[in-house]
Design a protein that fits this description.
This protein has 390 residues and is α/β, with parallel strands linked by helices. Helices cover 48% and strands 12% of the residues. Helix 13 packs parallel to helix 14.
């Protein structure tokens, strides 16, 4: 095979983040649909657990597990007590035993892990854990893990101390790999990856800068993915959808930042929206600058990169529009109008039609997120600004 035909070695890097790990299952689903397959997989904590299932091609197992798992399926929670005495006893037990018991998680890993099949896979695999004494990082390829000990090291990488107990392997205690590197891109490079997809869960711990110099696609959610120790099927279901759409966006199949928006017809629809929104914004800027500036700051703080759609996405987020559905520009606008408090937003209409006053502008300045919604609502439903001025 000629050099031009050689296949690039692809690396999938899965960060730690506890219960947020369901997000990575959505990423996996999207990568499969895109025909993107990893030759190297590295992970920390829940990322290495998901990574092992990826190497074993156990998508359905991973999906079904995440859609059914609860906190009590992962760790032994202290028995509920009554009043302050019960709380004190729970805290005493937690401290005395060095964290929560993860025997239920061990049972899950034992059920899904086939070490022999993992070692037989052509996909290279690696994980990160940390020796408790001295906090010595251990970046280990599968070949560097003793035979029969893979489950132990997977659990060691996931030992989110002090919430969870340290993992003892042959007399050495190990902690969660997040104490060293929560997203081990460097390990993937060491195992031969030439390009990377890195999936960040923004979990606790240290995430080292990616200094590999390799082409990298970073997948990270705009949305909060939930508490790292709260495993709930409804949260997992939401996170899976977010991971799926964020991956499709990262690979250029969708647009938007907070919401997945179809590319088909989006350029024309976005231009039409801005053709209504921008003159309205400029009108407010000229007549009521005190109201304009806070709304601009509110939009900037939303940190949305798809500039033409940023006002619409920010307003939809403030109104509570569901981010786990696929939209067009038009349908996102319709979803916003259905979700927003139209009656309350309409109280700002005098600022747009020339009958406003300083008191209303001051109210808009004090409620910039609400006023931004009012601007978007008016842009979607009201007359064009030249018609208003006329």
């Amino acid at each position: 095979m000629g050099a031009a035909e050689e296949k690039t070695c692809r690396g999938l890097v899965l960060a730690g983040g506890g219960a947020r790990g369901s997000y990575q299952v959505g990423v996996w689903r999207a990568l499969d649909e895109l025909g993107w397959t990893a030759d190297v997989v590295t992970g920390t904590s829940v990322g290495c657990l998901n990574g092992a299932m990826y190497v074993l091609d156990q998508y359905e197992t991973a999906r079904d597990m995440w859609l059914s798992i609860r906190s009590s399926d992962v760790m032994e929670l202290p028995a509920p007590g009554t009043g302050l005495d019960g709380l004190r006893e729970a805290v005493r037990q937690f401290v005395a035993e060095g964290g929560l018991d993860v025997t239920p998680l061990e049972e899950i890993v034992s059920r899904v892990l086939d070490e022999e099949a993992l070692r037989a896979s052509p996909v290279k695999f690696g994980l990160v854990t940390v020796e408790k004494r001295g906090l010595k990082p251990r970046e280990l390829s599968l070949e560097e893990i003793p035979v029969g000990k893979v489950k132990d090291y997977l659990l060691a990488s996931s030992a989110c101390f002090p919430a969870l107990r340290a993992r003892n392997i042959d007399g050495v205690e190990y902690l969660d790999g997040g104490y060293a590197d929560n997203m081990p891109a460097g390990l993937a490079a060491r195992l031969g990856a030439e390009e990377l997809v890195c999936v960040d869960l923004e979990g606790v711990g240290i995430t080292k800068p990616n200094r590999t110099g390799l082409p990298t696609t970073l997948i990270r959610s705009h949305w909060e993915l939930g508490d790292i120790l709260r495993f709930e099927p409804d949260v997992s279901r939401r996170n899976i959808e977010l991971g799926y759409y964020d991956t499709m966006r990262a690979f250029g199949r969708l647009r938007g930042d907070a919401y997945p928006i179809s590319l088909v017809g989006s350029a024309e629809a976005a231009a039409e929206f801005r053709g209504r929104f921008d003159p309205l914004r400029d009108l407010v800027k000229d007549r009521w600058p005190a109201a304009h500036i806070p709304a601009v700051l509110a939009l900037a703080l939303a940190d949305l990169q798809d500039e033409p759609l940023a006002p619409l996405e920010a307003a939809a987020e403030e109104a509570g529009v569901d981010p786990t559905q696929l939209y067009t520009v038009q349908s996102l606008g319709e979803a916003f109008l259905a979700a927003c408090d139209g009656e309350r937003l309409s109280t700002f209409d005098p600022l747009f039609d020339g009958t406003g006053n300083g008191a209303l502008a001051a109210r808009a300045a004090l409620l910039p997120h609400l006023f931004l919604q009012a601007l978007v609502r008016r842009a979607l439903t009201g007359p064009l600004v030249p018609e208003v001025i006329a």
